[in-house]
Amino acid sequence: MSAGDGGVPRTRVPRLPPESPPAPPGPALLRQRWSDVVFLHWPVDPARVAPLLPPGTRPDLFEGVAYAGLVAFRMPVNSVAGRLPVGGFDEVNVRVYSVDRHGRRGVVFLSMDAGAAHAVAAARLLTGLPYLWSDISLARGRDGLRAGAVRRRAPGRAAGRWAVRAGEPLERPGPLEHFLTARWGLHTRHLGRTWWLRADHRPWPLHRAEFLRYEGDLLGAAGLVPLTGRPVSALWSPGTDTGFTVSLV
């Protein structure tokens, strides 16, 4: 144990997250399918990340470095309590990585562009997550080409476009790939509290990806300044099914 936020003891965190999620405490409140997923990651200064995180959390670091991700995917399945379908949509999010005083590691979303206005309104109201209504185009091309573009409608006017080429499967992700993708929950601030949402899904089936291009201001609009011009990690996944449960931090 070591001193945490506000002098509260916190758990010493292992170098890497566990390879699979902890058992969920009960039935999932929300189920989603994420498919055709592109992961791009840049190193960022932990000092820039810390003010962007919910109270009770701090930047989760890999060898002293924080990372920011641009992640794009299709969500064909989205249901409440596994029974009530609420409609799928495409999403592009900007994320950083967090750990709380209990040692729970997760994602903090700084922006979540979605192509469905009703989903944006409902998610912002119910969860406080930073969903934004945007025009999104995700395309599949020959020889593994995956390209995308987003233009934000409201709030704000950020935009971006990217392309990668999906390659061979990773038999076993390296330490950095594991750190960036083995995220079994998220932290969010809502109704005056920091919430922990558990994510229950099988480990990502990951493929290498050749980075082709990125241009835009999606990371800058989220308050981030990458330390490199090109991402240091580019990955693709066919996807996974996920269930979420909620608890207070």
CATH superfamily: Acetoacetate decarboxylase-like
Strand segment tally: 15
Task: Count every helix, treating DSSP H or I runs of 4 or more residues as helices.
Answer: 4
Helix content: 10-25%
The CATH topology label is Acetoacetate decarboxylase-like
Low-confidence parts: 1-9
Strand proportion: over 45%
Question: Order of strands in the sheet with the most strands?
Answer: 3-5-7-8-9-10-11-14-15
Q: How many angstroms does the end-to-end distance come to?
A: 18 Å
Average pLDDT taken over every residue: 89
Task: Using the coordinates above, name the CATH class.
Answer: Mainly Beta
What is the SS-derived class?
A: mainly beta
At CATH level 2, the architecture is Beta Barrel
Helices, strands, pairings?
Blueprint: E1 2-3, E2 9-10, E3 30-44, H1 46-49, E4 57-59, E5 66-80, E6 84-85, E7 89-100, E8 105-114, H2 117-127, E9 131-140, E10 145-154, E11 159-169, H3 175-181, E12 185-190, E13 193-200, E14 207-216, H4 218-221, E15 233-248
Parallel strand pairs: 8-9
Antiparallel strand pairs: 1-2, 3-5, 3-15, 4-7, 5-6, 5-7, 7-8, 9-10, 10-11, 11-14, 12-13, 13-15, 14-15
